[in-house]
Task: inverse folding
């Protein structure tokens, strides 16, 4: 591995585009899997239940990993603008991601693994319809992705601590508590996107440790079945990692708003005291909010159920409110010209708010009693992943392409892409909410009524969304190939 430290943005961009294109490529494949599953739930195509659960396993973990890879690439680039980073380390982590994805695909496509990302002990080991090696390939694939993630976290955390003056500096502690002295001395707090990077690295490290701990234990059990594992311990650690990793994809991608919206509005997105404190909330509570996944586990300590509920609110609400408020203020009366990039970044904030509301509702114990494991759950997380995280990633990509080309897409193109991505998206998501509120269970290959009817509507919506996505990709390629004719890019 080259020891050369890279400070110039071309290396940063290389890492970013490699990660982003890989993430979007996996996303595209997983959309096809998702549409097939929804069409099967509608009864339009025949997929046997075993294959359905294998596809669901692949889709769930594949999508989250896709968003994470893209988001980590963006953050890596942002950090590289402030401090030199060794791109060899980024590609080492990337290699682990690819190896992990390949192992997971092998476990699912020829192997038919079907116990989902939760791999709830002892589920993947007893009474399975797939061979034992497929469970091993799944677990090893997961551990490889976790190792890649930990490498990324270690590199970024080390760089941030060195660049911004340790934990005090990167978390802007003096900026908040000794603001006057801090600003009078001419110092500046880290820019907003550095909070996203720091919180991803710190919480990612904690989540990755929990994830690796349990996956290694499961691998040991796979090798020697006489080694027993406590199911509640395993469930806590799996969800600690899974919830944290999935949630962090949002906090990775939102960095695209902090940097991209100012490029569109020609205004700066400054760090403020409320923004720093909001990020402290996310830092502290994202890692313990996962308790809301275990409300139904009677063996769980009762007090942590309340921790789960309170943390769910505190992890999400402050940072959403401060970020979206700041974003809207940036756009307000800025004279910003709408482009595909700015449209995606702005709409992504709406998706984040809507999906986030659905999520905190579900994390509220009296409501969770009704909604637990209904389609309400995929409703809210698809909202903020598809109409939040994905839009932030694509928005950031488009802002880059538009700036490089010195031009934006035509109004008609924007309308067509917007209709596909938002209109199709809404038609895909609403049936999840309605069917969920009606009590249709999630993760059923064959749904009880009225599930199949709503699945049909959702399949049409997802197909429209796919068209919008493909149109956006064509437009992105056109922008990437067009020459910059403007004087000031
Ligand atoms: C048009 C795009 C998409 C389609 C058609 C689609 C379709 C589906 C379907 C049918 C399910 C099963 C729901 C159930 O019955 O429980 C599902 C689950 C899931 N999807 Fe998607 N999805 C899409 C986009 C996404 C995105 C963007 C992400 C994340 C970034 C994502 C992550 C997941 C996850 C984590 C699960 C749950 C897996 C599990 O239950 O273990 N999906 N999706």
Result:
């Amino acid at each position: 591995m080259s020891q050369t430290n890279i400070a110039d943005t071309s290396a940063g961009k290389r890492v970013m585009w490699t990660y982003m294109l890989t993430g979007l490529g996996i996303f595209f494949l997983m959309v096809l899997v998702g549409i097939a599953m929804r069409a099967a739930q509608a009864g339009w195509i025949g997929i046997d239940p075993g294959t359905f659960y294998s596809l669901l396993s692949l889709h769930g973990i594949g999508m989250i990993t896709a968003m994470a890879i893209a988001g980590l690439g963006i953050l890596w680039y942002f950090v590289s603008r402030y401090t030199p980073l060794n791109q060899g380390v980024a590609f080492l982590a990337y290699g682990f991601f690819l190896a992990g994805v390949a192992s997971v695909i092998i476990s699912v496509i020829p192997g038919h693994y079907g116990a989902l990302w939760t791999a709830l002990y002892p589920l993947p080991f007893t009474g399975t319809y797939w061979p034992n090696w497929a469970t091993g390939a799944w677990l090893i694939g997961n551990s490889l992705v976790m190792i890649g993630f930990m490498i990324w976290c270690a590199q970024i955390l080390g760089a941030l601590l060195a660049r911004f003056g340790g934990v005090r500096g990167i978390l802007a502690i003096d900026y908040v508590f000794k603001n006057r002295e801090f600003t009078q001395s001419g110092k500046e707090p880290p820019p907003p996107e550095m909070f996203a990077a720091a919180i991803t690295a710190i919480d990612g490290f904690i989540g990755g440790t929990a994830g690796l701990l349990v996956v290694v234990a499961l691998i040991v059990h796979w090798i020697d079945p006489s080694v027993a594992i406590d199911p509640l311990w395993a469930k806590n650690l799996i969800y600690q990692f899974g919830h944290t990793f999935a949630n962090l994809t949002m906090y990775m991608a939102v960095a695209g708003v902090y940097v991209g919206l100012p490029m569109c509005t020609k205004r700066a997105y400054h760090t403020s005291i409320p923004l720093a404190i909001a990020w402290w909330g996310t830092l502290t509570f994202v890692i313990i909010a996962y308790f809301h996944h275990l409300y139904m586990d009677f063996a769980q300590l009762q007090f942590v159920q309340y921790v789960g509920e309170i943390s769910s609110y505190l992890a999400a609400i402050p940072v959403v409110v401060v970020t979206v408020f700041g974003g809207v203020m940036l756009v307000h009366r800025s004279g910003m010209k709408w482009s595909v990039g700015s449209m995606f970044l702005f709409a992504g904030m709406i998706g984040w708010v809507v999906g986030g509301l659905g999520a905190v509702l579900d994390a509220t114990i009296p409501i969770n009693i009704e909604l637990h494991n209904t389609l309400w759950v995929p409703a809210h997380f698809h909202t903020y992943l598809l109409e939040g995280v994905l839009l932030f990633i694509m928005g950031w990509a488009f802002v880059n392409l538009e700036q490089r080309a010195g031009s934006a897409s035509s109004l008609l193109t924007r309308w067509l892409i917007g209709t596909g991505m938002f209109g199709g998206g809404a038609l895909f998501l609403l049936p999840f909410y309605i069917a969920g509120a009606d009590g249709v269970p999630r993760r059923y290959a064959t749904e009880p009524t009225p599930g199949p009817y709503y699945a049909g509507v959702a399949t049409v919506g997802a197909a429209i969304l796919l068209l919008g996505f493909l149109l956006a990709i064509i437009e992105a390629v056109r922008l990437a190939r067009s020459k910059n004719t403007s004087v000031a890019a």
Q: What stands out?
A: Residues 9-42 form the longest helix (34 residues). Residues 31, 34-35, 37-38, 56, 59-60, 63-64, 67, 116-117, 378, 382, 385-386, 390, 428, 442-444, 462, 465 surround protoporphyrin IX containing FE (CB under 6 Å). Confidence is low (pLDDT under 50) at residues 1-6. Residues 9-481 form a domain with the Cytochrome C Oxidase; Chain A fold (CATH 1.20.210.10).
